[in-house]
Amino acid sequence: MKKLIETLKNIWSIEELRKRILFTLTLILVYRIGCYITLPGINPVMLTLDGDQGGLLGILNAFAGGAFNRASIFALGVMPYISASIFMQLAGIVVPQVAKLQKEESGRRKVNQYTRYLTVLVTLFQASAYVAYLRTQTGGAVVPEYPAFLFWLSTVTVLTAGTLFVMWMGEKITDKGIGNGVSLLIMVGIIARLPHSLIQEFDARNLGGGGGLLIFLIELAVFIAVIVGLILLTQGVRKIPLNFARRIIGSSNASSPVSGSRDFIPLKVNSAGVMPIIFAQAILFIPATIAGFAESEEAQGFVRAMSDPTSLWYNLIYAVLVIAFTYFYTALIFNPTEMADNLKRNNSFIPGIKPGEPTANYIATIMDRIPLPGAVFLAIAGILPGIAALFGVTSGFSTFFGGTSMLIGVGVILDTLQQIESHLLMRQYDGLMKTGRISGRQPAAPVQ
């Protein structure tokens, strides 16, 4: 406790860090207030949206911090911006012109501008779909006296403005605050549901004859163990040793290259992050939606199986899809040839491996192997909420036993803590950890 208080004092004593944290907290407060402001033409008392729906709607609601189900002005959150960013990222892999732009500073600014324009288009489309969703799912929540066209126009306009405002807040947090702004807003929306879920689970165990306090404490212990496992999955790397060749200047043998500093290439066990889980959930949602229009009993049975996270077939197909998408996405974002060329240009090499094509082949061989354990553990993390629900955990709390929510939460919190630690180390303070440092950052040089 004494170490924690001392660390908090050190954080608060750094003026720049203090201003960044206060700026971040202010924008987060504005975002959370906006999540409770209802759209024009909606009676919030009459809202009947299901807060625990699965598939893409569940992801949207989780990422928006519950604003989707509240019909809030921030109902779409930053999902349109994320969709546009993913599209531009994939375009950089497929389209050579976009890839060229992403390698230059001015080109990256153009890509960011294109991403914003694409965000507007995606938001207009999703907002129009959200209007139709509100009319079919909210019962009498839409005010009857509100003209249909005016309701569509006002809702699309407000939702588009709300998404752009959230995107702006995320960019401002990244520039003037602490952490990655967009990811931080998503994480805050996800974590905001945790206290209510904990209270709901506690009531279910103690008031509903669910086993009492002991079962609740066991669930908390398992929950903490899952968090530790997700941290290991997020931080796990395969280190490839690396040498930097340099020349001695100012001596008789200045022309002779000698071995310089030693370092390593950290290849993440889970390079794909949370994207395979999002892709797998989207793929499972599509056939279930199409089959939902059929009238046959077989089709309805398929819909029930693909909508039930506790069913065997759902979890089996889900796990296979996560593993497949992990390999697919890793292959898209990882280019061994480009990495080998960068090593060669920086006058660095892997000991025992020739520069150029042999280095690329060596890195490619490693990247063919290390995604397997990462993909398997990612698949396990993806199906853990369904397993928790199968053991009687309430639907709200079970989503925190893995899946998209906790992977994003753990990753963003670790990244934010790493940035705070870098500010402390730059000013010769101790880091956040009593021994060692948070993995992922090199110690910064102290300010003289």
Account of the 3D structure:
This protein is mostly helical and 448 residues long. The protein has helices at 2-13, 15-34, 55-63, 79-94, 96-102, 105-137, 148-176, 181-191, 194-206, 213-235, 275-291, 297-307, 312-333, 336-345, 357-369, 371-390, 395-398, 403-426; strands spanning 237-247, 257-268, 348-349. The chain has a three-stranded antiparallel sheet with strand order 2-1-3. The longest helix has 33 residues, at 105-137. The radius of gyration is 25 Å and the shape is globular.
- Largest sheet properties: 3 strands, antiparallel
Shape: globular
What's the total count of β strands?
3
The SSE order reads: HHHHHHHHHHEEHHHHEHHHH
Distance between the termini: 30 Å
Uncertain runs: 252-260, 440-448
The DSSP helix count reads 18
User: Average pLDDT, to the nearest integer?
Assistant: 79
Biggest sheet strand order reads: 2-1-3
Helix content: 55-70%
Give me the Rg, rounded.
25 Å
Structural class: mainly alpha
Beta-strand proportion = 5-15%
Short description:
The protein is mostly helical and 448 residues long.
Q: How are the secondary structure elements laid out?
A:
Elements lengths: L1 H12 L1 H20 L20 H9 L15 H16 L1 H7 L2 H33 L10 H29 L4 H11 L2 H13 L6 H23 L1 E11 L9 E12 L6 H17 L5 H11 L4 H22 L2 H10 L2 E2 L7 H13 L1 H20 L4 H4 L4 H24 L22
Helix pairs in contact: 2-7, 2-8, 4-5, 4-6, 5-6, 6-7, 7-8, 8-18, 10-18, 11-12, 11-13, 13-16, 14-15
Which features characterize this protein?
448 residues; mainly alpha; three-stranded antiparallel sheet; 18 helices; 6% strand; globular; disordered C terminus
